[in-house]
Design a protein that fits this description.
This protein is an alpha/beta fold. About 45% of the residues lie in helices and about 20% in strands. Strands 1-2-9-6-5-3-4 form a seven-stranded mixed beta sheet, sandwiched between helices. Strand 1 and strand 2 form a beta hairpin. The longest helix has 21 residues. It is globular.
Amino acid sequence: METLEVALGERSYPIHIGPDLLARADLLLPHVSQKKVVVVTNETVAPLYLQRLCATLSSGGVEVLPVILPDGEQFKNWETLNRVFDALLGALCERNTTLIALGGGVIGDMGGFAAACYQRGMPFIQVPTTLLSQVDSSVGGKTAINHPLGKNMIGAFYQPKLVLADISTLDTLPDRELKAGLAEIIKYGLIRDPEFFDWLEINLDKLLNRDRMAMVHAVQRSCANKAAVVAADERESGERVLLNLGHTFGHAIETGLGYGEWLHGEAVAAGTLIAAELSCRLGWIDAGIVARIERLFVRAGLPVMGPHLGVDRYLELMSHDKKVLDGKLRLVLLQRIGKAVVSDVATGAQIAEAIEVRCTKMGNI
């Protein structure tokens, strides 16, 4: 098992990474403040891992109230979130009752947002079960739901007490979900860790084949990168913005197609290539670097072309991005592999050209 810490003073918390951690009562129980917990999960994950988690908690005399939600990005909304509040209120949960989010990024985001809101804040634990959630969304305290006009536009910064990343849960992860998680892993190499990018080029096939040692290393290295960024900039006023490489374009794809049509990692992959294309047009990286990035995403089985929504539609959706400042769109772009910057220097024409080149009618899953 690997253990990291997100260093946030009195709100610091550990990230445990390794196999068979759902059975480790010694890791979970110290972070449970009452003899009752609420486990928020979904219809896909519950049959696989809910009983295992309940058995671990029950071994410490903890009563478990499961809340099972529908599965999918299209359910990441107020209506579904209210089902969590209904369960919390119906069970007379108190401010110190712990909420555990067992699932992928949607469950982690909604569970964390519910915990942030209920009685103005209850403790919660992240137990991510997808590769994407283990390397990205479970770490850092971003919680949110979607709005028809934009992804993750309603939420709060609210840190968990613990992140328990059980690598064994990836054994049941569909190939498409596994590949989507690789998009966020590749992102860390691109924005701040060029040696990791080199390692991914060599070891990508091991990750695709779910090699246990390679997977632990990739998750650990990704979480270490994110933990360092979050510790330096918890509320995204500076360096943390760089974690959004490809996300401005990617969120436009998710919103424009309808939530759930493309997986988040798929949209981020295509969005990253748009950002790389724009970086090249600005003269910051050359076409060879763009090709190198594209090759890795192609090997990972991820889209490198976005869907044809039309430039005007992309720009309209991107205008709702959280990085917009004083009405001006800021984008995360690349100066080299391992060095990202946030910039507003690209003209509307340059952005439109990058979208046109990288978003065609062939851009589909």
